Amino acid sequence: MPPPHRVVVLGFDGVDPGLVDRWLDQLPHIRALASYGTVTSLATTNPPESPVAWASFATGENPGKTGIFDFLKRDPRTYFPQIALVSRRPGRFFLGFPIRRPLLINNRHGVPFYEIAGQAGLKTAVIRMPLSFPAHPIGNAELLAGLGVPDARGTWGTFFYFATDLPAYQAGDTEFGGKLVRLRRQDGVDVASILGPNNPVASPSRPIALPLRVSRDGRKLRIQAGGRQVLAAPGHWSDWVHLAFPASAFLSIHTVTRFYVEESAPEVRLYMAPLSFDPDKPAVPLSYPSDFARRLSQDDGLEKTLGWWNDTWGLNENRLAEGPFLDDLENNMAVTERMTLDVLDHDHPDLTVAVFTATDSVSHMFYRFLDPASPARDPALAARYGNAILDVYRRMDEIIGQVERRLSPNDSLIVVSDHGFHAFRRGFNTNSWLVAEGYMVLKSAAGGARMNLRDLYDQGSFFPNVDWSRTRAYALGLGQIYLNLRGRESHGIVAPGAEAEALRQEIRAKLLAYRDPDTGEHPVEEVSEPARIYHGPYAAQAADLQLGFRDGYRTSWQTALGGIPAGIVELNTRKWSGDHCASVPSETSGILFSNRRVLGRASILDIAPTVLALLHLKPPAAMDGRPLRFAP
Ligand SMILES: [Zn+2]
Fold first, then answer.
1. Could you tell me the distance, in angstroms and rounded to a whole number, from the CA of residue 53 to the centre of ligand 1?
2. What's the CA-to-centroid distance between 161 and ligand 1, angstroms?
């Protein structure tokens, strides 16, 4: 029996209730919802971080049951960070033939509400859903995976920057996952290699390289690679280019990218977006059914498929300017809008779920213009891009209006964000603090090496300068501290039980008491203990302490990478100037809008059981959230 009415759930990552309030008179559709439905805040998870919160959104379960506590988790045997969302088992090949396909495993546990609906036979469409990669069969549903889909190199998104005037000392890997490559001039043509996906057939595995050739055609550049060519003018993005990287005579990895020409003469400066898996010939399960991604590409212009959709890293490393970053972000938002409206118009699903990430990316990168105290504020850029976040909120409002127009009076619209936003002015070097307090001991006084993102992926040396035989605690990820526990960590020295508990309380008290010497503020406002906030089969995998920073502070960039720089608090002068990842959850709520009047307070854990109840399906007992009540 079909449900009595349809449900549409729109997710807008990182929309902050305070900013919605501030701009409500410029958001007409949301203002209308406030008058007859609901516009309120939505309690988030601890930490208030996208993977953690979207996992709980989908399953209605706390992180102790979903197993997702951060972007990163660590291997206690090696102290190495690992991507928390997806694990990978390499394939086996014989003479270039695959005899065992590489296996990808989604580490998010629990059953999402859209999967329950699809399995119950309800027509379900899910667009760019975080933590749903690799896509697997879910009954009468179609799904395109979002956050968690890697780029073709297996990273969050490695951008490339090619330039004829790149100084030799800059060439190589940037701190946050870019490749800077010098173009060499040969007979009037500038050449370089694109280091693409790792070759799964080769042993040891190494990147497959494609030659890149760049020549001038008037003011434009003619860019050639892998048998394809594209023309692009300075100040413009090129068309999308489909590049096939040959792994063997039988296997190519199909990717898609595009170029932004910063300068064509006299020097050539060229940005290349991260290599996405091609939606037409995906090497990995981007969607269910497998041809759903192809349909979205043909009908709605889906090209880029990696989960981290917007080019934040290129902008943060100053290799892509604000203008092209925003052009791309607007395009990505428009593609998600087209896919969503197309599905609503043509498939008429009982349940539609679509997640937009432009709201989060633009807030991370442009918070500096909302925050008068931002160290990254630049008056000339502020004059030009001061409304960047507001403009994306206005687009969100238009999209809500477009969806509402398609609903019948009995249909339900639920709009959520996973967390709010804060200024990020000052970075806290958690490991440096642990060293200063004697909880972490270094082998040499020179301090720890500066790290870059490649260290995370290439498993080079992590924490190379730490003396584990004298270290009692270490920090990893965006707000987590682990004890070096005997029997759990391979070089653990802290005895489980009373000693560990006393150490935990001591670290907690000292962190809360710490004052930033420059501002006099306490950067750490809350320190949570996992046993008090998580329950379920994976709770034991959580960190031993979860930090909650006050507005203005975040874990430093180097701490996130395992670095131990000198100094405890440092200015964040980067363009990535807003954050939320280890903020105090009660100060970092997301939003809840609905065309129906919600009664009482709501948490992101309540959305899954609420949607199931609206569809007349029984929420599983494992769900921690409760169905929201609506005014009659
Ligand atoms: Zn974010």
1. 11
2. 24
DSSP 3-state of 120: coil
Q: Which two tokens stand for residue 388?
A: 């960047």
Determine the distance separating the centroid of ligand 1 and the alpha carbon of 22, expressed in angstroms: 20
- Residues 61 and 535: beta-carbon distance below 8 Å: no
Distance 494 CA to ligand 1 centre (A): 34
* Cα–Cα distance, 430 to 443 (Å, whole number): 18
Q: What is the pLDDT of residues 422-449, one digit of tens each?
A: 999 999 999 999 999 999 998 876 555 5
Distance 19 CA to ligand 1 centre (A): 15
Q: Which helix (H) or strand (E) holds 403?
A: helix 388-405
What is the maximal distance between C-alpha atoms in the chain? Answer: 76
If one counts every other C-beta atom within 10 angstroms of the C-beta of residue 630, the result is: 16
Relative to beta strand 351-356, strand 629-630 is unpaired
What is the rounded distance in angstroms from the CA atom of residue 104 to the CA atom of residue 107? 9
Rounded to the nearest 10 degrees, what angle do helices 607-614 and 50-59 cross at? Answer: 30
The model's confidence at residue 2, banded by pLDDT at 50, 70 and 90, is low
Locate the domains of the chain by residue range.
7-68+108-147+307-420+588-630, 159-276, 425-586
β-pairing, 124-129 vs 103-106, is unpaired
Contacts of 334 (CB under 8 A, 6+ apart): none
Angle at the Cα of 567 (from 564 to 571), degrees rounded to 5? 105
Ligand 1 center–CA 49 separation, angstroms: 7
Q: Measured in angstroms, how far is the CA atom of residue 27 from the centroid of ligand 1? A: 22
* Structure confidence by residue, pLDDT tens digits, 106-142: 899 999 999 999 999 999 999 999 999 999 999 999 9
Reported residue count of the chain is: 632
pTM here?
A: 0.95
Residues 6 or more apart whose Cβ sits within 8 Å of residue 93: 99, 200, 201, 248
Distance 7 CA to ligand 1 centre (A): 26
CA of 362 to the centre of ligand 1 (A): 9
Domain 7-68+108-147+307-420+588-630 has CATH 3.30.413.10: no
